Amino acid sequence: MRKVRLIIVFLIVGLLASCTSPNDSSNPRDETIPHEDLIELTLEELSYYDGKEGRPAYVAVNGMIYDVTNSLFWQSGSHNGYSAGRDLTDAIINQSPHGLSTLTQVPIVGILVESKD
């Protein structure tokens, strides 16, 4: 099961990386993310990373967890009425005017899992 998750992670990272401008040298996807550095969080665990009281701000989209802590758009863990620490797949894909494009500017830190093995 873990191998399947890792394969999915690398496929998604590859897809996201291919959607970025080749001239953007500041893109955090320029280097392959070592799988051992990715964390696995459940939705319950993800809720801790809400950007409040000094905690990091993480959001999940399509099973990937992004660190939006240092994004100017996610001050104090919120952006346009949405809060960090949640799965925002529907909001990003179906409601956001920028879609997945701005996620290329923040690092992937993990994958969302249903439960811990």
CATH topology: Flavocytochrome B2, Chain A, domain 1
In terms of quaternary structure, what is this? single chain
Strand portion, in percent? 15-25%
The overall pLDDT average reads 79
Distance between the termini: 9 Å
Biggest sheet details: 5 strands, mixed
Rg over CA atoms, rounded to whole Å, is: 14 Å
For the record, the count of structural domains works out to 1
CATH architecture: Roll
The succession of helices and strands, N to C, reads HEHEEEEEHE
Structure description:
With 117 residues, the chain is α/β, with parallel strands linked by helices. The protein has a single domain (2-112), classed as Cytochrome b5-like heme/steroid binding domain (Flavocytochrome B2, Chain A, domain 1, Roll), CATH 3.10.120.10. It is 24% helix and 19% strand. The chain is built from 3 helices and 7 strands. The strands form 2 sheets. A 5-stranded mixed β-sheet has the order 1-7-3-2-6. The chain has a two-stranded antiparallel sheet with strand order 4-5. A hairpin with a 2-residue loop joins β4 (78-79) and β5. It is globular, with a radius of gyration of 14 Å. 23% of the residues are buried. The model is unreliable at 15-32 (pLDDT under 50).
Summary of the model, kept short:
The chain is an alpha/beta fold.
SSE topology:
Layout: H1 2-18, E1 39-41, H2 43-46, E2 58-61, E3 64-67, E4 78-79, E5 82-83, E6 86-87, H3 89-95, E7 108-112
Parallel strand pairs: 1-7, 2-6
Antiparallel strand pairs: 2-3, 3-7, 4-5
